Queue: 4 jobs
Job 1
Amino acid sequence: MKRKRFTNAELNEAARHYDGPYKPYDLVKELCIAIVVVGALALLLTIFFSSPDEKPSTIASWSRQMPADFVTTATSELDGSSFSADYGPPYNNGTGAVQHEWFIHLQQWFGISHPLNAPLDFVIDPLRSIPGQPGLRSAIATYEAATPKMQSTWTTNYANAVAPPAGSKIPPAKVSGLRVIPVGGDYGPVALMMSSLLSLAQSGGLDGALLTSSQFYQTDYTKPLLLMADGGDLSARAQAENLLGDQWGMMNETGSYPGQVWLWLYTFWYQIAPFNSSANADLLVLTVMGAMSLAFILIPFLPIARDIPRWIPLHRVIWSEHYRSHES
Amino acid sequence: MSGGRNWTVRLREAGVRAMPPERLLPDGQPAYMSSWIYIFGVLTIAALVVIIFSGTILGLKGPAWWHYTGVGHFFNSIHLWAVELFFFFMVIHLWGKFFMASWRGGRARTWISGAISFLISIAAAFTGYVSQQNFDSQWIATQAKDGLNSTGIGAFFNVLNFGQMYTYHVLLLPVVVIALVSAHILLVRRSGIVPPLPLPELGLDATVSEHAGASTAESAA
């Protein structure tokens, strides 16, 4: 007897058994042909389009191309005002990048697993690694012995001299070749510390100094990448390649290549309210994506989602031949 | 030979019972399997084979090789395009299976294993992108860290640690993807491909029973 609508239980039961006709089929041959076809497709795409490989930035290249940006960033690391210096877990006890939802503070609960002390790790310890230079050692000692207020005065004066705030009457620092020369002011020992750090960075020494740990072999780039991310070099290159967050971010690839296009839904949420203006955007987006992923996995058990294939009857196209044979 | 049923014999017999050879590698398929949508599953597997092959070549020479040799760059390109094809085929396969309501008839585990394979594949591809050792990996890693850190995942999955990401990419996640895809294929073989959704005008039985003029499973085999 014909009916208008089947229940899910009926559909399930009907799909458990198939007593109908079979046709000869060679699965192994099909797979072998598929491998050849896909291999040929990948080969053709390789021949015509190759693959992108933009050289990585280094602290040396950044500090040589953007010396003022480098010393501004280094000053913010020294006085603890940079993004990384005040980040919070898993790097330090800061609060600048800590996110939570309601009473759930996952970021803080998991603690500090990759410790970072920005003033020491990014500035003072690398400066101490420079051999000789009694004047520099004296400058570091002077800085460390000063009161926090005095330190802040020096770093603020220096930062303002290198990159004057909008509307400020402070004359901007002179950038001469690879040097940054702030116009006279009270910078204490900071001017010497920064010019020494700039020289170290431009020589490539800071790249190595930030990788140094207790052993010879290195694979962890956490510290150099955090420092570079605080500066303007990576973001300037990313903007030129349309990789910024408001340009749909990391789903894109450098050049005109398809990147991780399967992340479109993840990056989509960052473009719309309330996510694009929330201080907890990352956590909110990942929570939404986590919930959607779980729903995706559990579609067979979700009443509305599992009914969509019946409401949008694409199966009539997919199995059209089969249905026609039964109608006849 | 000893006639005792030792553990090995029991395991073998359980395996054969669960998956008889003719079910594991059948030489016939239901007559309703006659749409282009069915090829996207096998195309996805084929792309995975090309990914593993090209990735193995890259792995044999180490992570920096492809930056300074033409042959290395060639295999990196094959790897990249195979990944793009893999996701392209898999997404079409996924939408196809969705609109076929392919979880019917006790096939929910098949859907779930496929869905998790898709999600783990995204993670595997992501760790590849941050293991490239170029500007792209620097940018993706420094951007992605904030999202992962906000959930606490960053405490033990550090995208700025190349060594950790590389290990995930060349060993841990491929093992998981291959295991999941293998389980998915075995589940498909065990349950068979899902029969067509019954049409109201044809009734429930019409789609799963024999009609005149077609061969049976036995005669196809």
Job 2
Amino acid sequence: MIPELGNLALMLALCLAGIQATLPIVGTFRNNTRWMALAGSAAAGQCLFVVLAFASLTASFIQNDFSVAYVAANSNTLLPVFFRIAGVWGGHEGSLLLWTLMLALWTLAVTLLSRQLPRATLARILSVMGWISIGFLVFMLFTSNPFERTLPGPADGRDLNPLLQDLGMIVHPPLLYMGYVGFSVAFAFSIAALISGELDATWARWSRPWTLVAWMFLTLGIFCGSFWAYYELGWGGWWFWDAVENASFMPWLLGTALIHSLAVTEKRGSFKSWTVLLAILTFSLSLLGTFLVRSGVLTSVHAFATDPRRGFYILIFLAIVTGGSLALYAWRAPKIGLGGQFSLFSREALLLVNNVLLVVAAGTILLGTLYPLFLDALNLGKISVGPPYFEAVFVPLMIPLLLLTAVGPFLAWKNDSIQAVLGRLRWLALGAAVVAALALLVFKTSVMVAVGVTLALWILFATLSQVVQRLAHAPAGASLLKRISRQPRSYWGMVIAHAGIGIFVVGVTLIKGMESAQDASLHVGQSVTLGDYEFTFSALKKIQGPNYIAARGTFEVRRGADSITTLHPEKRFYTVQKMPMTEAAIDRGFTRDLYVSIGEAAPDGAWLVRVQHKPFVSWIWAGCLAIALGGALAASDRRYRMVARQRAAASPPISSPVHSFV
Amino acid sequence: MKTRHKRLILVLTGLMLLGLGAWLVLSAFEKNLVFFFTPSQVVAGQAPHNRSFRIGGMVEKGSLQRQADGVTVSFWVTDTVQRVRVHYRGMLPDLFKEGKGVVAQGKLGPDSAFAADEVLAKHDENYMPPEAAYALKKGQQANAKTSAAAATAASSKDVK
């Protein structure tokens, strides 16, 4: 009964999405305010039904209703209840439902928080979001229905893939999807602007907080995925340039470009067409990311489905969304115009370079990700493009970007003098050079490590000195706390995010340049040394988990005479899927992680053990979190809320002019 | 400076950055593309000798051997027609098993054995790495052809 209700709810949601997508936009052409006003209620109703559908599927999972094929494929009676709930998005169909749920929630949020928008604008935006929702609902109902039944159902389910039975599974997909789907708001704003042909600073001010929030979620989502892969996959990597990771990283790069270009559009009125184009591309790549991962084109831990109908539908949908909006762009962009003027040495110019570098970087990743797929599809041979390619391309593009990240905030809008800025940066540049020389000569690091650390410190110190300079400009006599709180939150957002990049670069550089690992075959009682650390395999015992059995090792870690910690890596065997899995044990620290994983046992009772020393991993995570926090701070800036209030006071939305489509 | 000049400089800078990107991509592609070869192709000498490539197929049953150090392993990868010896030092992925599909990346050694620096994991018991599946399919096709040819040869003999 419950699955049928869920199915019905999905159909009703599709009907309401149809209303939301069509009537309001027709209303804007006919100047019919009633039709326009339908958008909000349709969106709310659609959201209600999607939530119902999602709740039905969740209920089926909790009740172990294995007559639902999707539940049977992704759950099991032995699976703990919170993983059964996470199992809702453990496969292709449920992921789509989660995507649709996120879209419905974002749409509802736009409806509720943008009442002050001109009614016609809001109608256009909600209509665009309605079309996206139709695309997903139709896809789900016709090719990937999560409520499909097999009667009679099996007695027990096939269980969730053991790799996915982790806290990461509960957090990572929702965060990532919040990010992906959140860019649909910026996309819808852009399409609405293209349709109406008007795009001004207010438009940018409206889009900014939405884009920032989406970007923050995507940052957190990618961070979670990386953090999870680091401890779960059992061999201590945190980024593999896997096609699936790239699929989430490309929208992030473009989203980063977008939040910077939106800043220019809001503050200076420049980059208008470019901002719109970026918004379209960012969302297109988010869609591509969702589909690349979920369609089975890529085979990895993330990919499930292999149904040609799905692939075909996906291609058509992508072609319509991307092709259609780009065509609309080509037709309407000249009407929007380029916006204000600026000199070659100004904050705008630097942000333009930032944007070009980010877009080029995303482009090179796209090429490396899709090229093997194209060759394979055209039967031109099987190749793979691995981390060496991405590193060779990405790093040289990021070095100038990192250099400029530190400089950008020092520059004035519109026009600045090179001498003045060089004057401000002189001591910092000198300091950075000294650090680089010290690293190379005294610590004898590799060139890459010296470059990375120097760049990171350059960003950190430049950001700090910019803060000091800015606070010094506050009116005399004000206390430090007052000076700090006088600065807008968006400023602190930028500062923290930039500092986060510096911290992140420290982590990446040092782990890349200085990590070490050792494989050994150990009997209980034996030990292995790695650098200063000695790992002793002191005990092994069998344990019984809810749906697995495991061998659990005890490793005592010593450094000289000091006992550092005791670690318990496990080798698990999941009984339903008959799948072995390595559960690594990690001792996290401020400057290093110690990482132990156990492989298989040889017939003579020796275990294969891998111990790793990973310097500064925590800095990677701290950097990511700081970047996300920066995004959150910037999104919560007062002026976005003030605009809302002013608008509400100035003009009641109903009386706002309806702009005809010329 | 005139607006026209400014725009020209901006466009040129953009093009330069794009060019830089293109150059990086091309040179990185040239050095880092990893091609895939089936065991039959490797045995036929089609695989390069000084460059990393991927090999895939099935781990031959009973072929997995562990060296005295307990860390180095070797096994045969077969596409049911030909087989190649693979050496690897380190932990094998959780789902590595004899009689199952495998993909390895590395270089051919002087002894024409394959020195792998990476053995690729699969993430699901039922899932076969596509490259391994491809190698096995090719191998089976070749087998079918040989047996068909043998059959024709036999029948033509009969006619004689």
Job 3
Amino acid sequence: MKHFGKRVWTGVVAAAGLLAGTAGALSGPSVASLNVCTDQLVMLLAAPGQLKSISNLSRDPTLSPLYEQAKQHPINKGVAEEILLVKPDLVVTGTFSLHNTTSLLRRLNFRVEEFKYSQSVETIAADIRRMGRLLERTGTAEAMASRFEHQLAGLEPLACSRKPVAIAYGVRGVAMGKGTLAHSAIEAAGFTNMAAELGYEGVTAFPLELLVQDPPDLIILPKPTPGAPALADEILAHPVLARLKATVTGGFSSPAALSCGGPFTMDAIQELRALAPLLTPCRKAPGS
Amino acid sequence: MSRPVLISLLTVLGLAGFVLSLLIGPARIGPVDSIEALVAGGNEAAMIIMREIRLPRALLGVLIGFSLGVAGAALQGLLRNPLAEPGIIGISASASLGAVLLFYTGLAGASFLALPAGALIGAAICVLVLLAISAMQASTITLILAGIALGSLAGALTSLVLNLSPNPYASYEIIFWLLGSLKDRTMDHVWLVIPLMIAGWAALWASSRTLDALSLGEEGASGLGANIPRARVLVVCGVALCVGAATAVSGAIGFVGLIVPHLVRPLTNRLPGQLLLPAGLAGAALLTLADIVARTVIPERELNVGVVTALIGAPFFLWLVIRSRKELF
């Protein structure tokens, strides 16, 4: 009897879940995402049952901030056929990726919405609201977007004698210049981005010599991908970096911290701010 | 031109390339300050830039250029083929493939030694296959075509291995392995290649008398008492060591071993063994100068040095092919 009762309960819970699922699907359009950054917003905002599939990159810990959560969802490889099979009401993707797939899907009368590839902390709230409108989840989206805006506006200048200088460096000598999400996160955290200061735009090669000539206070380095060696990681062990005594090197706990904009971008900004007390212009003099 | 004069002239050229390479870089440091920082220390930032960034780059330019020049001259002598060159006949590409296979698949962990070990094995296998083909009385062109096929195959497989790597940055490194670069190398790389290259130079130098004799043809050389099988082994080992070590730290840099023997040969007595040292010195000068061009031709945007050597070398190769229809050597 006890067992029977338990089974009935399981059945009821399952039925309720199913109902909730259908209700969710009824409440808004079903969606498939083809881009790792739209994947993040869809995972955050879609109601249960709304999400048909997200891109395979969403499970890559080096690119996708929500890679753990992505394991619960079906994935696609960005091929039009997969979208035809699941027939979502809405396809979301980035302007930068898969042009051919996008135009093919449009010809097949799918509603395709593109999100801009270039992001900054200022565009995040707008992207969240836009995704909320598309998914008919405006309440959730508004709460998330205004919370982010509130946090961004509440960031106070760092308690330092001058603005500390930081650079996001690595991966075969590339730095994040003006126009990248990393740049805007560094500036929002209260730092000066050395690469942008020197006139570098986008993700560009940055000479190691300049790093030595006028060393920044903080070098943000990526973490090597475990189990998959690449020469990219050699730069992390370049003896020059160890010779810069006044410079602190640090990194984000997640390698994907700044690959896409979202509420998690605030975590990256906070991680940067947490490094500030270690830096030369911000260190408290002993005894004061 | 007499040999001592030629060798001193080429040494001066090589040294000039080395010094110029030291003086050029994005950090603006005057020539006097640069040399002072390099030799005596002083300003700490300048010292780090000179000793840890520019010195390894200039040294590797000289070492790799010398090795590729010598290897090209030795191959042209042994195969009696004016078009033989480590890059064209696929030895550099095979060295890249060997390095990539051992390193990126994680077979050897992330060990620093995986790259040279893989590159040496790849280069040696390719030289052996080419020798087997040339032993079948293949014509000049057959051997070159076989080498080009091997090189294309190795290049394609290199790209494939890098594309399949789970590391997101590996696929960006295809260009490094196919068109090499000397960017941001360290003194560790210099220490790594020096013993391998010295062994390679020694092996090729030991083969030089037999290479001279071989210019009379195999029967003529045997008649003079030359030990041809021994010379083959020496050249295989020497080329594998030189090209393998070079490719392990700089990726595949082509055409250096093709251009310099042809430029220098008219200034020598045309004996292949006598050509080795001048070709090496000219290679050092050419590669350091090409690396300077790669760094300065587009400001703020560095080219891979393999692009520069290919831009000079590929038209030169075409010209040689057209000319070789009329005369060989």
Job 4
Amino acid sequence: MILVALLSLPFLFVLARKPVLRRLALRNAVRRPRETALVILGSLLGTAIMTGSFVVGDTFNASIRRTAHTQLGPVDEIVSANGLASAPVLASRLGRLRDPNVDGTLALTSTTASAASTTAPVRAAPKAQLLETDFSAARRFGGDPHATGISGPTPSVGDAVITSDLARALRVKSGDAIEAFAYGVRVRLRVLRALPKLGVAGYWPGDETASNNIFVSPGTIAGIVGRSASPTAAPPQSIVLVSNRGGVEAGARRTGAVDRLLEAQLRGVAASVNNRKQAVLDRADRSGKSLARLYASLGAFAVLAAILLLVNIFFMLADERKSELGMLRAVGLRRLSLVGAFAAEGWCYAVLSAIAGTFVGLGLGRALMAAAAKLFSRRGDDSRIALHFAFKWASVQRGLLIGFVIAIATVVLASVWLSRFNIIQAIRDITEPAPRRPHRRSSYLGITGALLGLALTAAGVASSSFLALMLGPVVVLLGIAPMLARNFPRPVANTAVGAVVLAWAVAAVPVAIALDISVDVLLFVVQGLVLVGAAVVLTAQHQQAIGHAIGRMAKRSLAVRLGLAYPLARRFRTSMTLGMFALVVFILVMVSVFASMFSGQIGEFTRDASGGFNVVVQSNPSNPVAFDTIAREAGVRAVAPLTTVNVQITAAPGLTRAREWTATGYDRRFVDHGPPKLDDRAGYASDTAAYRAVLASPDLAIIEASFLSSGGGPPREQVGIGDRVTAQDEASGRSRTFTIAAISTPDVADNGVLFGITAARDLFGARAVADRAYVDVRDPNVFADAFAGRFLANGGKAQTLHTVVQTDLAQQQQFFLLMRSYLALGLVVGVAGIGVIMVRAVRERRRQVGVLRALGFQAAAVRAAFVVESAFVAVEGVLIGTVLALVCAWSITLTDAFGSTLAFRVPFGAIGLLMVGTFICALLATAAPARSAARIRPAVALRLAD
Amino acid sequence: MTDPTDALLVAEHVRKTYHTGAEEVEALRDVDLVVHEGEFVSIMGPSGSGKTTLLNCCSGLDEIDGGRVMLDGVDLHALSDARRTANRASSMGFIFQAYNLIPVFSAVENAELPLLLAGVDAKEARRRASATLERVGLGARLKDRPAELSGGEQQRVTVARALAGKPRVVWADEPTGALDSETAEQVMQLLRELNTDGLTLIVVTHDSGVGRSANREIRMRDGRIVSDDVVAGAVGGAIAPWR
């Protein structure tokens, strides 16, 4: 806000201390309230889009942070060890921990379980956990009883206190009975009460947002394990929860110090420390920033369109007032004062539009997040994010500042440019002739620019910067343009430069990828901008030819001729409008094409992800399904058991802090029946050979391309073949370092890091239980549908790999849809822009319309001429945007930026709808100004003019 | 008022009132006017006397509040807007003080507008417009846009535009108001020649020199015609229809 105030000072000075300029600025601003409103509307969209983007980031950030309150509360670190026998050891080391950074510890015993209701229809929660703790100690834990979510006494034998999530899933209430299944044992429990999903009560160590917790009396888990007949189940966990001093979020700042303390305390104990709170907060920041960046980057197209609109509006304003401005200069107003008056008027618009835009942006963010919340709630699994609208004032202020700076910079630059008119020509309303050849000075400046461009290109290649590589050659070409224009006819020079820039912008992405330069979502902004700019220059150069061709087609229509005459004659304005439309359509078509290309991958993705299998099943690690038994069933062709656990990735290229990731161990059966396809198998002869090598060597692993990366755009390979990655078991604290042997195709089944079973057993120890499996079965749908019912006690869940891919892609499509809805805002800019421009055009041409009407031009023909004019610009803009987006998308598919399976596909329906919709909206926006033009009474227009 | 028999234009009891906020201005008060074919009529008077309003109302550019205007026997104000517009396209030409050319059209494109509006074939329209521009001395400037022409040249394009459609009557509102005296004289000479060829001209002007070029001078004051005289010594009166 201080920056806004500082930037406003010169304008406030003009308004406060220069009465003439103040009168000029303010009276011009209020002279035509309807048009002022339109100018503000056009200007506020930039602020709204930026604020909306930040609000999206804030909402995601806050929603993930909410997990820190609901599923952790006072819990900052989780110390866990395998087996019940570890509990006394942990208690002795940590039970009386005294440290200024720690305000409490809480002992807990847990094991995974599945749960079901006991009355028909039976409802099940395959993924739940049994927990034992002392409720009085739990309430005291962390110093804020409310933050723990714990209330009432510790449950007695046979009783259970469950979380509201589980109560909802099983549809049970106090007094009802439930059954819990673990280690092959069924336990019947009476529900005493339901606790909220909050703090210790909501404690959940997995990625799921539902906390299906069953608190039971101490000793219950030991009793179950004692009665167990299951030889291969993962052991229960002995856990100590640690609360850092400070609030729920502030406490995480002490994690580093507490981590060191815990490591010292646990020396020699087979236990691990999981900095869960910090990881959740990091993830919140990462997701929030990444989404805000994605939305802001793609929204930049709409912002740029809004800037072009603003420039256009100001040039029209200046054109309309040219003679009065010329008169003011003639009577002694200095050029600087003229800039001051014009810019002060623009400042009024900028302030109003920035404030209004901020509110619109908040509303926009809220609408987007409401749509996203619906989208996520449809996903149907427990790992969805529960979105809660939130924003930070800092984000609102940032949106306001960016919008204000954009508006004010546009206004000031436009004012300076406009003030450089010839006074006499302005007074007499004579168009200033364009110089035939650029001045020699321009050539020298251009050559200097070209040299800088060369340096930029070289720097881009040397530093692997896509931005520099992309823009360097463009600067070179723009630099040599004045020199070319001095030696060749200007249209020839401009056409040549425009064509080469266009070609380079298309080729830049494949070239960057060939040079191994990483490209992210910023690529779309820079590439789109350069492409559209070059295409608009080319079109502007050949606008007369295009117009004449259309004119010849509609030879007899005077309305068409007149409608085309204005956009052909006003090249600058037409280019601005064209650019505005083309930018917006470009990004919308681009996103549509990518959505279509991704959705078209379902067959290929399923084949790649499946290998020789067609179903993926999972079960409770404390009570896993006996996969060997399944393998013998009729119709089952193969079963490949997998061991999947969460690990901490503690060391990897580019990793600054440990991150939780899934890891899966496979055995020979997985490889023999056909494992998922690899994207890069390095030097191995075949995919199978690579999988076998990893199976044979406990030091090798396979990852997917997006391992540890985050953000939009093409997946960035942060970790590649040959890199070394260290994984730590979350229970025992054991670590192993792997070398990456191959990169898999997208990991839709969430296998995470893949390594051989020997390495898995070594790393996971007692937790190395085969709880998942890839299955090849004759009738996958029937098998998958029946699986959960058959293995209720095991927490069984099965999905065909086709469904897994379909669900993944469906969510991706929903995301694209959401993105397109957001980007459609740009269309509002375009359509509102054309409306504003046509309103101003009617005012500007009032006299000419009057003359035409006097000469015998029918009202309907006047209306038609305005409609033809906007239709011509809209069609050109839509065509430029569409063609460029298609070429650009096609060029990207020539590379493997988004994986080798991405095939170029044109969603004709979606693009057709977009083109026709945009065109119709442009016509609708022109309807009112065209009608008002047709109603101009010739005598009135001429009388006012003369 | 002259004899209305066989007149080209007959305006009877024409009234026009402007409403400006709460104020009412009677611009025309019961005006009668008769113009015969081939006449060169100048309408003079001080500012606010109603000259331009009379031109606008009699040409059908503006509505009237009372009376009627007959052009070639057709009651202009009884026609719909579309019919009246078509009538203007086929029967009238206009010359304005501020030229009022379409800036995005070239000289020849401006001149051919009335022809195209009257439904003349595009090629024929271009040929006739070019010929008219030749006649007003702009044969070499056909492709130039208004911004590339001087004031006098622009006014000559306006004259060409007014004549290209071979109208029954040309209305001119201060045709020399924006020109220097030499250029103004050239334009008036051109108009005199056209009138000699049979063109009916009705010119609104402040300029007594312009007024003297006409063969009939009407003076207005406060929305009324206060005098209507034949100008002695004026060159006027059509011998044969100019077209």
